[in-house]
TrEMBL record:
Pfam name, any one: zf-CDGSH
Domain spans labelled Iron-binding zinc finger CDGSH type: 8-45, 46-77
Protein name: Iron-binding zinc finger CDGSH type domain-containing protein
Entry keywords, A to Z: 2Fe-2S, Iron, Iron-sulfur, Metal-binding
Keyword Iron-sulfur among record annotations: yes
Gene3D superfamilies: CDGSH iron-sulfur domain, mitoNEET-type
UniProt keyword Metal-binding, yes or no: yes
Molecular function GO terms recorded: 2 iron, 2 sulfur cluster binding; metal ion binding
GO cellular component: cytoplasm
């Protein structure tokens, strides 16, 4: 089963160094790109991401990146 495409582009988010966030892997969260537990009962689980530096990060919105949770441009091929 493939994850739902939440959007065909990255989410630009401001994150703090060392503070864990949970990236939605299923694509169903209403709080994209973060998990809201919409994956419950599915094969998907959120991915913990701990930024190494504070600032803007581009998290995958299509859920197909090869560098999850970071965007790698895969959405351009969908």
């Amino acid at each position: 089963m493939e994850a739902k495409i939440a959007q065909k582009g990255p989410y630009e988010v401001d994150l703090k160094e060392g503070v864990a966030v949970y990236w939605c892997a299923c694509g169903k969260s209403g709080k994209q790109p973060f998990c809201d537990s919409s994956h419950q009962g599915s094969e998907f689980t959120p991915m913990e991401f701990i930024p190494e530096k504070s600032g803007v990060h581009f998290l995958c919105g299509c859920k197909r990146s090869h560098t999850k949770p970071m965007c790698d441009g895969t959405h351009l091929k969908l």
